[in-house]
Amino acid sequence: MPRSAPPSSLPAIITGASAGIGADLARVFTRNGHPLALLARDVPRLEALARELAAPGGAQPLVLGLDLEAPDAPARLAAFLRTQDFEPGILVNNAGFGLLGPAAETDPGRQIAMIDLNVRALTALTLQFLPQIAARRGAIMNVASTASFFPGPGMAVYYASKAFVRSFSEALAHELRESGVRVSALCPGPTATEFFDRAGARNASLSTLAMMPSMRVAEAGYSGLMAGKRVVVPGLANRLLTTFAPLAPAALVLRAIARLQMSRR
Question: Is 1 among the domain residues?
Answer without folding.
Answer: no
